[in-house]
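Structure (tokenized):
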């Protein structure tokens, strides 16, 4: 079980770095100078839509894998560490009597 936890941690870190890179490679809509004046098609290597389509799909799948590995890490850590409560060992507050009225 410990080896699986380490494997998921490594995959999670790789997906995090990849997700950061893919998000930083993307440009917002009309983010370049030509877009500010209503121009189109300044990225003609792949065409304006093809590159955005690939990056959007990579971002979507990276985000899905990130969420799955996050949930998997939570479940695996809980199983290896054993179930324990955050409030375990905390003493309850003492109960005091209500105040007397001043009448």
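Design, position by position:
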């Amino acid at each position: 079980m410990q080896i699986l936890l380490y494997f998921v941690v490594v995959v999670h870190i790789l997906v995090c770095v990849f997700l950061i890179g893919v998000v930083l490679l993307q440009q917002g809509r009309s983010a370049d100078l030509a877009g500010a004046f209503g121009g189109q098609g300044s990225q003609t290597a792949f065409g304006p839509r093809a590159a955005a389509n690939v990056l959007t799909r990579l971002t979507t799948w990276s985000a899905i894998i990130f969420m799955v590995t996050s949930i998997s890490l939570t479940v695996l850590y809980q199983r290896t560490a054993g179930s324990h409560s955050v409030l375990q060992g905390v003493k309850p507050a003492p109960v005091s009597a209500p105040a007397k009225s001043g009448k």
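Reviewer-requested clarification: The chain has three helices and no strands. The mean pLDDT is 80.
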